[in-house]
Amino acid sequence: MTGTAPVTMTCIGCPLGCRLDVELLDGGAWKIEGYECKKGKEYAAQEAVDPTRMLTTTVAVEGAIWRRLPVCTARPIPKDRLLQACRELHRLHLTAPVVLGQVVLDDAAGTGVPVVATRSLPAVAPVVRKLS
Question: Under 8 Å CB-to-CB from 116, ≥6 apart: which residues?
Fold first, then answer.
């Protein structure tokens, strides 16, 4: 695939939100225009070849003050694997306590990337009621 029409995208590398034009030239080189910083050029090159995203969501947890635990992939995963990873995390049910940085899923959607807890969630003692 060479000599394609430019693709326009908005950069998410920094707060500027530059409008980027990315084009694959004959010979396999990329032409990237519109970036204002180094992050923009890197983002466009990555996005054009292999788009990846960080996944942040929550998973169910029992025995804690809150029923959901915020989690995040340790590094970006391929964009086309996000839905599969979300489905895996939806089926996951943890039991408190959970500590910040604890791996809650070893391999998100077959990517080799772990999913980790982004906060600690201590266990809560069960409530005991006295019968009168």
Answer: 71, 72, 73, 74, 101, 102, 103, 104
- Would you list the domain boundaries of the chain? 7-49, 56-117
The overall average pLDDT reported for the chain is 91
pTM, two decimals, is 0.78
Largest Cα–Cα distance of the chain, in whole Å? 84
- Burial of residue 59, with CB atoms counted within 10 A of its CB: 0-12 exposed, 13-18 middle, 19 or more buried: buried
What is the model's pLDDT at position 1?
Answer: 43
Hey, what CATH topology would domain 56-117 get?
CPE0013-like fold (3.10.530)
Read off the tokens for 41: 């050029």
Residue 32 near residue 22, CB atoms below 8 Å: yes
pLDDT of residue 2 exceeding 60: no
Distance CA 60, CA 68 (A): 5
Residues 52-67: tens digit of each pLDDT: 999 999 999 999 999 9
